[in-house]
Design goal:
The protein is mostly beta strands. It contains 2 helices and 38 strands. This is Low-density lipoprotein receptor-related protein 2.
Length: about 475
């Protein structure tokens, strides 16, 4: 027998249409919340105690910052301080957008929804970088680095944008080379970097913009404050005090929302006065970032890059005054007529314990000539290059035996893959050479000389305690 009465329900983030039988996307603004192991959405209505304003994203690892692409209905987040992930707002198609091997250890995210590029901070290498979201090739470029001047990047953390005006803003924990803890700003092509606010900013956290009033908001864990300042660096006030560890924060309409890691709460205050504190959620351990899933109509919808990528071959970076800079991805330079981007003809590849980088050897600034390979793996200075295919090969001696092996990636940032990840042994790989004469063999890998792997395995089997061997292959 069939029941005579029934009620239809929709998944989180969706609602019933007028016919009460069809589910449609719920476009009501809501608060995206990041905890260490889950991302979920809560309504902006304090009277609604539910946590199902979006399909929850569970099983994440050490979640950090978050942003969204409303055009493609995507959510981006940082996890493990090393990679950027994405998922549809419906919860489908979860994937790693930018692997740690290419972007190092990102902390803060900011999506330019007009130019369709993602900005992120990289505190471990003291940079602010950008990556293109659309297309198969995610072009990327380093915009701001540690220059040895106070205006450069120290340990950049939070980041926020005003894409219609072509400005970016970031918080910086400072460094030992002259960069103070600060709130900084720059054009969105990385130019004209200035320090807006310094002093009493120990352990500064994330930053949020209120584009309608041209104000910035940031948390200072060292003093338990949330402060507010104008985008021109002129006026600075304390908005909220008496907190323990303010961290994530976001502004929407007349309210500021923020998390306190120690008190385990999400709270709301008046964005102008800091008064009328309201607890939105409490007893939530592991709170991190949060952001309202909505676009402010006053933020603008166009800039010099909003149509056809601004006519640029790789990256279009907006600037104030409806201007733009066409930039090539790391490792490429503009052609003479600026109509295309070309590879550097010669450069040096250098490896450290954590990164592999290429530097142009014929320019005065020794600019980066390849997309850096980084992340949290332990690179022991063992690498080789197959020039014809454009691949760099390196030994990954991670502390986890399951991650040890040989990896490869193209100098333009594509083609990241694992060549070998079994039978490596506890000591890892300490010698590697590509046989460039034998060339490409199925399945399209240059011949990897086995001598170093075999000798290292023999040494481990014998319990030998010798210096680590290195090898060079001379093909006949």
């Amino acid at each position: 027998m069939r029941p005579r009465y029934y009620t239809c329900h929709c998944q989180s983030g969706w609602k019933l249409d007028a016919d009460k039988r069809t589910c449609i996307k719920d476009e009501t603004p809501f608060l995206m919340v990041v905890r260490e192991s889950v991302i979920f959405g809560i309504p902006l209505d304090p009277a609604d105690p539910s946590n199902n304003a979006m399909a929850p994203v569970s099983g994440i690892s050490q979640g950090q910052d978050i942003d969204f692409d409303d055009q493609q209905q995507l959510i981006f987040w940082v996890q493990n301080l090393r990679s950027i992930w994405q998922v549809k707002t419906s919860g489908a198609n979860r994937s790693e957008f930018a692997p740690a091997a290419f972007i190092g250890s990102p902390a803060g995210l900011a999506f330019d929804w007009i130019s369709r590029i993602m900005y992120y901070t990289n505190p471990t290498v003291n940079t602010i970088e950008v990556i293109r979201v659309d297309g198969d090739q995610h072009y990327r470029k380093t915009l701001i680095t540690s220059t040895g001047k106070p205006e450069g990047a120290g340990q950049p953390f939070g980041i926020a944008l005003d894409p219609a005006r072509g400005k970016l803003f970031w918080t910086d924990k400072g460094s030992d080379n002259g960069v103070p803890p600060k709130v900084g700003s720059a054009n969105m092509d990385g130019g004209n970097a200035v320090n807006l606010y310094t002093g009493n900013l120990a352990n500064i956290g994330f930053i949020a913009t209120d584009i309608s009033t041209m104000k910035l908001y940031w948390g200072v864990a060292g003093s338990g404050l949330i402060e507010c300042g104008t985008m021109d660096g002129v006026s600075r006030v304390v908005l909220v005090s008496g907190l323990s560890h303010p961290w994530g924060l976001t502004v929407y309409q007349s309210h500021l929302y923020y998390t306190d890691l120690d008190y385990e709460v999400i709270e709301r205050v008046d964005k102008v006065t800091g008064a009328n504190t309201l607890v939105m959620r409490s007893g939530m351990a592991g709170l991190r970032a949060l952001k309202v899933h909505a676009r402010d109509a006053s933020a603008g919808t166009t800039n010099a890059c909003s149509s056809n990528n601004g006519g640029c071959p790789h990256l279009c970076l907006p600037k104030p005054g409806n201007q733009k800079t066409c930039a090539c991805t790391t490792g490429f330079v503009p052609s003479q007529d600026a109509s295309r981007c070309e590879l550097y003809d010669s450069f040096a590849i250098v490896s450290t314990t954590k990164y592999i980088r290429g530097f142009h050897i014929n320019s005065s600034d020794h600019s980066e000539a390849m997309v850096p390979v980084g992340g949290t793996s332990n690179i022991k200075g063992t690498l080789d290059l197959h020039i014809e295919s454009g691949f760099v090969y390196w030994a990954d001696n991670s502390t986890s035996s399951s991650n040890k092996g040989i990896r490869r990636a193209k100098i333009d940032g594509g083609g990241y893959s694992t060549v070998l990840n079994s039978g490596v042994g506890k000591g890892g790989i300490h010698g590697l050479a590509v046989d460039w004469v034998a060339g490409m063999k199925p399945p399209n890998f240059p011949v990897m000389h086995p001598l170093s792997l075999q000798i290292q395995a023999d040494l481990q089997a014998q319990g030998a305690k010798t210096s680590k061997p290195h090898y060079v292959v001379f093909p006949l």
